[in-house]
Specification:
By secondary structure, the protein is an alpha+beta fold. The protein is built from 6 helices and 12 strands.
């Protein structure tokens, strides 16, 4: 090994260490902000992807500001009063992640673990709050539109139109739905929990938090290692941007230091030539 190589290796290790240390610092600061551990969740499917992506042809979605497969999303703890539903946001103009209202992370029917294994939470938009006024008589109330429903809830604005409806609700909570066109109806109509039961309106106690901020593409690393099928289904453009970003983060400090070193050498040479 040459003398030059022995001098370069420690600098390379130092640059890589700085890069990963910076990532760790960001992660810790994110935890302090979110109040959750882990402070981020990996998006494992395309249920929140939007079809009107101007950057890439379908199905290659990779928006910044919209939740795509492989994104890391910050989850901030939230109480009921902190969450704005789609119907409420539509009235006030409040938008997050490309549509009205907040996106929440929750456990279906509050089940966080099953047979000793952790259950993966859902990240979908809070469409409406429904009050179960009289369970036996199936009387429901949605305060955002000040409307009572008898027997069943039909409301096209939240994906319950054209004959689609929900009924037999056990308790009050959020009606939730994915943004993708592959999710035309709320979870309370189409989803089941891990035990096979119909998903009920999301009680605030089942909510982990609301989505706040994203780190696009980097969740693909986890999917590549633990969920190869989901990784394979992720938009190819997202994978390209992931590897490009890793190159910039890891190689950037090294390249910058070498450029500065060369600049310093050239400056000294010019100074000597003027003497």
């Amino acid at each position: 090994m040459s003398k030059l190589d022995t001098q370069q290796i420690p600098e390379t290790v130092k640059d890589v260490g700085i890069a990963f240390g910076s990532v760790a610092l960001v992660f810790l600061l994110t935890f302090a902000y979110s109040g959750n551990w882990p402070p981020m969740v990996v998006i494992e499917s395309g249920s929140m992807e939007h079809d009107n992506n101007p950057l890439y042809p379908e199905p290659g979605y990779t928006h910044i500001g919209v939740i795509d497969t492989g994104d890391l999303v910050v989850v901030k703890t939230a109480e009921k009063d902190d969450i704005v539903t789609y119907l409420e946001g539509k009235k006030t103009g409040y938008k997050k992640y490309g549509d009205y209202g907040d996106v929440i992370v929750y456990y279906k029917n509050g089940i966080r673990d099953y047979e000793g294994q952790a259950v993966t939470p859902v990240i979908h938009r809070a469409m409406a709050w429904v009050e179960v006024v009289d369970k036996d008589n199936k009387t429901y109330y949605i305060p955002e539109i000040d409307t009572y429903f008898q027997g069943k809830i039909e409301l096209a604005e939240i994906g319950l139109g054209g004959g689609a409806h929900i009924k037999d609700l056990e308790s009050s909570g959020y009606i939730t739905k994915g943004d993708s066109t592959g999710n035309p109806h709320p979870d309370q109509l189409t989803h089941r929990d891990i035990e096979g039961n119909v998903v009920q309106p999301t009680d605030p106690d089942w909510v982990v938090g609301k989505a706040r901020g994203e780190l696009p593409w980097f969740g693909l690393i986890k999917l590549r290692l633990t969920q190869p099928d989901n990784y394979a289904n992720a938009p190819p453009e997202c994978k390209t941007m992931l590897w490009f970003s890793i190159f910039v983060i890891v190689g950037g400090p090294f390249v910058a230091s070498k450029m500065w070193e060369n600049y310093s050498i050239q400056t000294k040479k010019k100074g000597k030539s003027k003497r």
